[in-house]
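Lecture 7 notes: from sequence to structure.

We start with a single chain of 99 residues. Read the sequence below before looking at the structure.
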Amino acid sequence: MATRDYKTLKTQLEKLQVETEAARVAEVKAVIAEIRSRAAEYGLTAEDIFPRKKTRITKATAPLAPKYQDPKTGVTWSGKGRAPAWIRDVKNRDRFLIR
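Now the structure, written as tokens:
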């Protein structure tokens, strides 16, 4: 087996990289031409091929009706989310229910 030195192998590698890039560019051009001709043939637009991502539309929800009321200040709370300080440590919240 013949031994090759580093410089020779490096030169061959660089030549192959140049050839590889040229082949890739040629193939890309051919693929683009094919896609354009097919799109024209079928009347496709860029939007048909690459549709925009659908954005999630959030519903605007109506505020919840208050469920609890502080008898001292009249401040209300719907019962959803973090509990306010005036009701946070209360075990039985029935006395704060709005009837």
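Residues 58-99 form one domain. Keep this in mind for problem set 3.
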